[in-house]
Design brief:
Blueprint (H helix, E strand, L loop, with lengths): L1 E3 L7 H9 L1 H5 L2 E3 L13 H10 L6 E2 L4 H10 L13 H9 L6 E4 H10 L2 H4 L3 E5 L3 H13 L5 E4 L5 H6 L2 E4 L5 H4 L2 E2 L6 H41 L5 H20 L19 H26 L23 H4 L3
Helix pairs in contact: 11-12, 11-13
């Protein structure tokens, strides 16, 4: 910042004409100081990114700033390694990626558009950590490409140029109350990236709770089927109070307790399963059913082994009064 000494009685036209002459403007200046602009991230951003990395969530930066600024911020916040800067042409980069080298790339918007046009972006996409000088349309294209890889893709942004990407992402988090909050499914009250961490925690908890509810209903039905088989074998039925205890107390109680499940305080690298017929879900239900059958067999064996146990004999029952063997709600029809 410098001071320019000009006459006070100059008109507007004289000032404009003088400003067009660069040599005249730079002559006889008095240096007052330098103004430094620093667009720093918030203090808790590094902690939020570290939590996302601990949860095995890959983080990338899509910014309108230049590549050097993006690289500096990414290194300071732990998004990228602090190794030395090296520049390669496209064939050399492709060779490093194909060799399985641990390469983290930073590309400009022009380079990104070129890679998309040449069909080279898909092979390098997961090695690019920083997308710089990106336009709003470029951000949308970047989000779509990540979604095409099969990964659940989230987007966090606070500006109007992020609206498109927030809308197309699987989970968009608006970090402001401006235009971004209109198109984004989620809006952060704290206006910080920590809201993305909270969304991941709550999302994983919702998935785990939903699958637990489904598995509980399935296992409950399987237990009832096995119990019916035991009843048919011993030609007996359980009383109505047994069903009241099972359906009214046990089932509702367990369902209510599952509803109270809370997310973990910290993200873990192990994710809950997202497949209803995947091995994790099937093995879980099968293992639980095996345990239930073992306990049921043991309890029936202990009961029938008692000296006071008197097995039911269907021979003594008048088959013409078969409804007496049915449930109460069936016998009431007659």
């Amino acid at each position: 910042m410098q001071q320019l000494n000009t006459p006070y009685d100059w008109t507007h036209e004289q000032v404009v004409k003088f400003a067009d002459n660069r040599e005249a403007v730079d002559e006889s200046l008095s240096l007052l100081g330098l103004i430094l602009f620093r667009n720093e991230l918030k203090d808790h951003t590094a902690d939020a990114i570290a939590k996302l990395k601990a949860g095995d969530i890959r983080t990338v930066m899509i910014t309108g700033d230049n590549a050097m600024c993006g690289c500096y911020i990414a290194r300071q916040r732990g998004m990228a390694s602090s190794s030395s800067r090296e520049e390669y042409d496209l064939p050399a980069v492709k060779h490093l990626v194909e060799q399985g080298e641990d390469v983290e790339l930073a590309v400009t918007g022009v380079a990104f558009d070129y890679l998309v046009a040449m069909g080279e972006i898909k092979g390098l996409l997961l090695n690019i950590r920083i997308f710089s000088r990106m336009t709003p349309d470029g951000k949308v294209e970047c989000v779509k490409l990540h979604m095409e890889t099969g990964a659940v893709t989230g987007m966090g942004g606070d500006g109007s140029n992020d609206c498109g990407a927030l809308h197309f992402a699987h989970a968009g988090v608006a970090l402001s109350d401006a235009e971004a909050s209109v198109v984004s499914p989620f809006t952060s009250k704290s206006k910080t990236i920590q809201s993305v961490v909270d969304l991941c925690r709550e999302g994983r908890c919702s998935v785990a709770t939903s699958f637990a509810s489904v598995k509980f209903v399935i296992v409950y039905g399987l237990i009832g089927s096995v119990m019916r088989a035991f009843q048919s074998y011993h030609t007996v039925i359980v009383s109505q109070w047994c069903w009241i205890l099972s359906d009214g107390v046990s089932m509702l109680g367990c369902a209510y307790v599952m509803k109270l499940s809370k997310p973990l305080k910290e993200l873990k690298a192990v994710r809950p399963t997202s497949s209803l017929i995947g091995p994790t879900t099937l093995v879980s239900m099968l293992g639980q059913q095996i345990v239930n059958v073992i306990f049921l067999c043991c309890s029936v064996h202990l009961l029938t082994s008692e000296v006071w146990y008197c097995p039911f004999s269907p021979v003594s029952i008048d088959v013409t009064k078969w409804w007496l063997m049915a449930d109460i709600h069936l016998s009431m029809l007659f």
